[in-house]
Amino acid sequence: MRERLQTESSGGVFANKDLVRSDTIIDEDRIVGRDEQLGRVVDNLKPVLHEEGIPDMLLSGPSGTGKSLIIHAVCKQIVELCESQGKTFGVLSINCEGPKTADRAVYRLVKCAADDLGVDPGVPQTGVSTDQKLERLYELMREYYDGVIFILDEIDMLEGPYQEAEYNSLIYQLSRARGLADFDGPISLTAITNYADFMKDLNSRAQSSYNPDDIFFDDYDATQLRSILMHRRDAFKPGSLADDVIPLVAAFGSQTHGDARKAIDLLRWAGELAERRGSDTVTEPAVREAQEKYTENRKLRHISGISTQKKLSIYAVAATAYYTKGNPEWIPAGPAFKTYQFIADAMDADRYSRETFVNHVTEQSTYGVLDFERRGKGRGRGVHMYFSLSESPETIMSTIREDSRFTDLAKEDAPIRAVVREHMKRFHNDN
Ligand SMILES: Nc1ncnc2c1ncn2[C@@H]1O[C@H](COP(=O)(O)OP(=O)(O)OP(=O)(O)O)[C@@H](O)[C@H]1O
């Protein structure tokens, strides 16, 4: 079982499955089309190489149309070219679906910079003001970077609990960095959104401080999708993909909003279905079946594409939520880690450290799968990390069990429940 777990896929159709995972960062030569948008982003960021100012940008357009791909691909090149000039360009990118407030989003930016630089974040997530977090962000910028781009993906998701959406405050505060950060290098504030009219939703304060170059990404048609998929054909072993599969996936993709992510996921799902059936070729019926099963739920689709260890970590959190009496919304990391260790042993998989487990779990907040926070259990009872899933634990568990490497976990119901209950009880008694 261990061997089976450690191989990337259990069957025989994939040669490099990463190429059909939509969160894989692909090489430039696999980017198809989008010349106009690519050209504009390149022209906007090129001045960094000459220590000149760079504009703010707003990348808008429907889901899966290459917005994140293009900005990250260009930033990657800029980072490399800066490196060759002995300069450091900081790409501080967060997804705004996870943090619920501007304060948390600022913390994530600090964390992103600290992780990139391999230094301590230097501020706690809670207990200090947003200004203190911003000051730390500026400090890191002054100390380590020669230029910075803030990338705020899914900016419209940062609505927050107040009447006025939190993205206003985040945009306002970050766009003032040029004046307030005492940072000499170029700065761009680049937001990504699905809404073409996003600027109209901003309040006047945010609007007056943020004047981005608005770059629009439209839907892909079937021909463009086909070409995107053809450039990833080598995800499959030679001869394992019937000729009509890519055109059919592209046709389905163009019917459902021209979203390349959906098309790539559908191709992978068809491959996985074929493998589960023990087939060594992906054919049209597998595509049709995958299309039927294909839910609109992006978070679940995301989970089905992550690595085995990450699935294992998320499964442990979901199982801890599911088997705990009363199904609490917030799950403490301690007992969830015990569940993880138990499940890893049951599957004969490697057990990673608690830190790696926590990283694997918190990373998923970027994709809106869950939220996390540190909080106290009450006076003098310590601060603990907690996770809160955004989908029902049962749905998450059954999605992960669709992966043949996890299917057998359904049989471990009773022992997992016992482990969860014992460790949740200990957690409550100990602290
Ligand atoms: N022109 C393209 N060439 C190759 N792959 C593409 C292209 N456009 C999109 N993709 C792939 O499709 C997937 C989704 O693209 P991306 O994440 O850039 O979409 P997006 O526009 O940022 O979507 P969202 O608004 O939902 O975040 C990624 O796996 C990306 O690699």
From TrEMBL:
Molecular function GO terms recorded: ATP binding
Its keywords, alphabetically, are: ATP-binding, Cell cycle, Cell division, DNA replication, Nucleotide-binding, Plasmid
Q: Which residues form the AAA+ ATPase domain?
A: 53-252
The cross-references to InterPro entries, in alphabetical order and at most eight, read: AAA+_ATPase, AAA_16, Cdc6_C, Cdc6_lid, ORC1/CDC6, Orc1/Cdc6_arc, P-loop_NTPase, WH-like_DNA-bd_sf
Q: Which family does it belong to?
A: Belongs to the CDC6/cdc18 family.
NCBIfam families assigned: orc1/cdc6 family replication initiation protein
Report the protein name in the record.
ORC1-type DNA replication protein
Q: Which organism is this protein's natural source?
A: Salinigranum rubrum
Which lineage ranks, top first, belong to the organism behind this chain?
A: Archaea, Methanobacteriati, Methanobacteriota, Stenosarchaea group, Halobacteria
